[in-house]
Design goal:
Shape: globular
Structural class: mainly alpha
Oligomer: single chain
Order of helices and strands: HHHHHHHHHHHHH
Number of helices: 13
Radius of gyration: 20 Å
C-alpha cells in the first residue's frame, strides 16, 4: 500500500512530494517494494535523475534486498533511456555475478539497447538466450524490437524474419498497436504486398481509427 501510494504521489505531485512522503515512512515498512517505487520515481521520463536513482539502488544493495530483478530492471531502463550503455552492461554483469535470473523485462531492455546501437551480434545473443529459456514468455514486442534493430543495421532479410515471428504472436491484447507497428515496418522496408495483406487482416480483426489509417 505504501509503495503504491509513493508511486502515485510521484506521478501526480512530483518528485519533491514523493521524497517528503518517503522520508516519513516508518523504517519497518521500507521493504524492496517501497525502495523500488522510489527508484521508479527517479526513473520517470520527466525526471531521469541517474545520480539519485543510483543512490537508492546502493541502499537496496546495502540492505541485502537486491535478490530479484525488480529494482535492477528500473535502473537498467533508466540507463537505456539516458544512453548509459557502459553502466547498463556493468549492471547486467552484476546481475549475472549475483545469480539473479533475468526476466522478460531484463531481456527486453537489453535487446532495445542493442537495437538502438545496431549491435547485430548483441541482438542475436539476446534472442538466443530468450528463446532457449523455457521460463520466458515471448511476445510480439520482443521480435518487433529485434526487427527494428536489424532494419537499422541494414539486414533486411532478418528484419522481415522477425516481423513474421512478431505477427505470429499477435493476440487480442493491444492488437491494434501491433498491426500499426507491423504495417509501418513493412512499409518502411518497401514490402507493399505485405502491407496490403496485413491491412486486410487488420480490417477483419479490429475497428480502425485515425492512427491506423495514417
Amino acid at each position: 500500500d505504501v509503495a503504491i501510494r509513493l508511486d502515485l504521489i510521484g506521478k501526480v505531485h512530483g518528485i519533491e512530494e514523493a521524497e517528503k512522503y518517503f522520508n516519513n515512512i516508518p523504517i519497518k515498512l521500507r521493504g524492496i517494494e517501497v525502495y523500488s517505487a522510489l527508484l521508479n520515481c527517479y526513473a520517470y521520463v520527466h525526471v531521469k535523475d541517474v545520480e539519485k536513482a543510483e543512490a537508492v539502488m546502493q541502499k537496496i544493495r546495502d540492505l541485502g534486498l537486491d535478490r530479484t530483478p525488480l529494482a535492477f530492471n528500473v535502473l537498467l531502463n533508466l540507463y537505456y533511456q539516458t544512453g548509459n550503455h557502459e553502466k547498463l552492461d556493468a549492471l547486467i554483469h552484476e546481475m549475472e555475478e549475483k545469480g539473479i535470473k533475468f526476466d522478460s523485462f531484463t531481456y527486453g531492455i537489453r535487446l532495445s539497447a542493442y537495437a538502438a546501437t545496431s549491435d547485430v551480434e548483441g541482438i542475436d545473443k539476446v534472442l538466443q538466450q530468450m528463446e532457449s529459456n523455457p521460463e520466458n514468455v515471448l511476445n510480439w514486442t520482443i521480435y518487433a524490437v529485434a526487427a527494428s534493430g536489424y532494419k537499422k543495421a541494414g539486414i533486411e532479410e532478418k528484419a522481415l524474419e522477425m516481423l513474421k515471428k512478431a505477427e505470429g504472436l499477435v493476440n487480442s491484447t493491444r492488437r491494434s498497436k501491433a498491426f500499426e507497428f507491423l504495417l509501418t515496418q513493412y512499409a518502411s522496408i518497401g514490402k507493399k504486398d505485405e502491407v496490403i495483406r496485413l491491412w486486410e487482416l487488420y480490417k477483419k480483426k479490429e475497428k480502425i481509427y485515425n492512427r491506423g489509417y495514417i
